[in-house]
Amino acid sequence: MASWNYPQLNLDELKIAKAVIRDVPASIRDLYNVCKAIRGMYLNDAKDFLNRVLEEKEALPFWRYNKGASHKANISAKWKIKAGRYPKKAIRQVLKLLENAEANATNKGLDVDKLIIRHIAAHKGITLERYMPRAFGRATAKYRRTSNVEVILEEVE
């Protein structure tokens, strides 16, 4: 079993809340762009933004892995990028993670309105190998790739 730890950011342990979700059945490429978009936002602003993307009112900018992503007219000018998509599967998983981190912060006694996303990152998870039967007794490998996402929220004044 591989060892894993949160990154050492020299933050006050009394003012942060952590959460992690493992083996997410979503693309690491989509999760990377979702994490990059909401990093540094206030928690409530990030959840509102992700809900707007889920409803396709605003597109999520794709900085990396954007080959074939068309330009979207509803990307905010603050991103300074035009390529975007609506990665709904990845956004649902990140929203679930943010809800979990918010519950951890509430349990710790932190003010939810002052929480900022200090760190969020997506990493490759395990790859499950399955086999799909083919003609003449052969089989083709079919891979189910997973991802891990971690978040650290910090209470700011």
UniProtKB/TrEMBL annotation:
Coiled coil: none
Keyword rRNA-binding applies: yes
GO molecular-function terms, A-Z: rRNA binding; structural constituent of ribosome
Name of one Pfam family that matches: Ribosomal_L22
One BP term from GO: cytoplasmic translation
Keywords, alphabetical: Ribonucleoprotein, Ribosomal protein, RNA-binding, rRNA-binding
HAMAP family membership: Ribosomal_uL22_A
Protein name: Large ribosomal subunit protein uL22
Organism: Saccharolobus shibatae
Gene designation per UniProt: rpl22
